[in-house]
Amino acid sequence: MKKPLLIVAIILVVILALPIINFIRWTFQTKKPMDIVLLDKTVPTLEREKHKSFNWILTNERFVKKEKRTSYSYRKDYYGFYPTRPLRDKLFDKKDYRLADLITIAENSDAVYFTDTYGVFYNEWYRGINRSRRTRKLYGGLNNNDNLLIKEMKLRNKLVILEYNTFDYPTPEMEEYKLTDRLGIGFSGWSGKYFSSLDTLKDENFPIWMTTMYRKQYKKPWTFTKPGIVLLQEKYIIVLEEGTHLNNSLLSIITDSAYCAKYNLPASIPFSQWFDIIDPKENNVISKFRIETTSLGDSILEDNNITNEFPAVIQDPVSQTTYYFSGDFANSKIPYWSSRLKGVDKLNWIIYSKKPDDSRRFFWLYYRPLIKGILYDYYNTLSAK
């Protein structure tokens, strides 16, 4: 065999062998038994993208169910909304816990993670019927049982992780009040999202109800065309456009050096998903959002009692086992097959792009190390008992 062909053959063998070797390495990792209750009420497709990336981490790090010592399934091992095949028939199931089961669940579980409580609505499930901001709810919102489960888990100092929109619409006001009081935080009512283009003609998926809301509030047409951030409250909308109101349209997550070292996080990383604005009060702030506003943008935020920095991740200061993520962190399109390959993170440079708004980049550089750090810290305390 000629030398160039031999080199090519060797390279091909190595490429083909690496996944097998990494799968074997993953298989022989030590299993870490931990019973985790996962809740996701926002599952409008079979992909389960609102919690799939969390399951990826559980699988990759070999966190398994205690009884059977098997990996968690992102398709089956969660409470919430279950679309059924074929999706075109628009049929679904729901998996909920009963009030009578809450004490047992809290006693037998080690952790709970609410990745998304927003739910599924007619305008999402039956596409094309209604494009308004809010339509009739099929399923969703934090309810009394959810709140009681959080209470019981916290009473036992179990790990509790909650994520963006846990207490916003469609959660009833009473449940919002009980939860924010339990977490020791204040909710401003404001939420927002980055858009790579505010031009409704260029982006066919842009929420058209935002333009209607803007025209109704300001009595003038929607003329924004550049990237920007849209902030929303119950009846109010603020649009911050790059160049006019923003020096950089992407908001950033900033982390202090101590937490960077503890969780292996970057000091700064762009964020492009939905977020909400809270007052952390006495909670530890692990990371914070920063909006890079111009002087005009600062004035608009100040007029609405909003600052350009607010918490992204907070931690209960006493037990240090309750966390709230003020962003849609778990929402990321990660190839699930790669979860069974040890060392796949060494290839992350080919798994995500260099685009700052790539959610996969956020997963690899921020979400994965944060979740991994939280889980390992907690697992080590369980093992020490």
Précis, in short:
By secondary structure, the protein is an alpha/beta fold. The chain has one domain.
Write a structural description.
This protein is α/β, with parallel strands linked by helices. It has one domain. It is 32% helix and 24% strand. The chain has eleven helices and 18 strands. The strands form four sheets. It has a ten-stranded mixed beta sheet with strand order 5-4-2-6-9-18-17-16-13-14. A four-stranded antiparallel beta sheet has the order 12-11-10-15, covered by helices on one side. Strand 11 and strand 12 form a beta hairpin. Helix 2 packs across helix 11 (359-384), helix 3 (102-108) runs parallel beside helix 5 (144-155) and helix 5 runs parallel beside helix 6 (173-183). The longest helix has 26 residues, at 359-384. The model has no long low-confidence stretch (mean pLDDT 90).
Report the mean per-residue pLDDT as an integer.
Answer: 90
Overall domain count: 1
Backbone structural class? alpha/beta
Query: Low-confidence parts, pLDDT < 50 over ≥5 residues?
Result: none
Order of the strands making up the biggest sheet: 5-4-2-6-9-18-17-16-13-14
For the record, give the distance between the C-alpha atoms at the N and C termini, rounded to a whole number. Answer: 61 Å
Q: What's the helix count?
A: 11
Residue share in helix:
25-40%
Order of helices and strands: HEEHEEEHEEHEHEHEHEEEHEEEHEEHH
